[in-house]
Design goal:
297 residues; alpha/beta; Nucleotidyltransferase, domain 5; five-stranded mixed beta sheet; two-stranded antiparallel ribbon; 10 helices; rod-shaped
Length: 297
Amino acid sequence: MAQVAERDSSVYFTDGSVDPDSGRTGAAFVTTGGTELSWRTSDNCSTLQTELVAIQHALEHALHRREATVVIHTDSWMGLQALQQPHPKDNVRLITTILGSLQSLGAQGRRVRLNWIPSHVGVRGNEAADVAAKRAASGPSVTMHVPPSLQQLKAQARRAAAHRAHQTHRELEARKRQAAWYAAATDYHPLDATQQQPRADGVVLQRVRLGYCTREELQEDFEGQVCDHCEMHTRRPLVHYLLSCPATAPLRPGPALAAQPAGWGLLSGREGRATLMVRHTPRDVMLGVLRATPPPR
């Protein structure tokens, strides 16, 4: 296919370009009359946004011409679908600007056709628009600012929240032993909410995941307590329960887990090995032991 054209019409081919490596973007249109215009759009625009920008500028260009029919050829099926939404929820400014230009052309008594064409099948106008959009995306500076879409803003908010949560976790791990235990024992993976379980099971699982101290450990004069299951005296009740108590032997079927070479921060080596056991023991095995021999409280 060499070309797509209509007699007595202004014919535009539009395209957008996004460089996934640099985040640079561009939009362009070419006409069958030889006009080519392009814009370096904001970094990290979506492909849909660049395609809509190209359509928007083609329509604005057509407003200053006199042909009775305006034909816009685009390979953006998503762009055409977005323009058909009765109540757009995203890229609202771009879409309403395009719809406004369509209304203005209609008020002039002119006819507009938005036509989808497949990309990279040899349509010269489409290929030329593609080259122009890529060239625009490689430009040094932005020539058209495009506001972030709602989806982009939500993604940015999620990334910012995740980054802040990560910072908070690391700060707590450096100051709070229980936070360091939870990080090592869970890697911040929550319990699977899709697995139905009695509330009591969730309580005992969280007790070992959080590394709770016993009531006696919270006392200022604490010097150790006797294990409820083996009657051994210990200064670290939960660590003893997980690593040494005969009642929890099913948790230790193989060689003892070694501490990570980088160390455990606030945790001792034995505490580190205990958290690894919590982290890597299958849930059903852990629950079986916790139900039969509850952890210290």
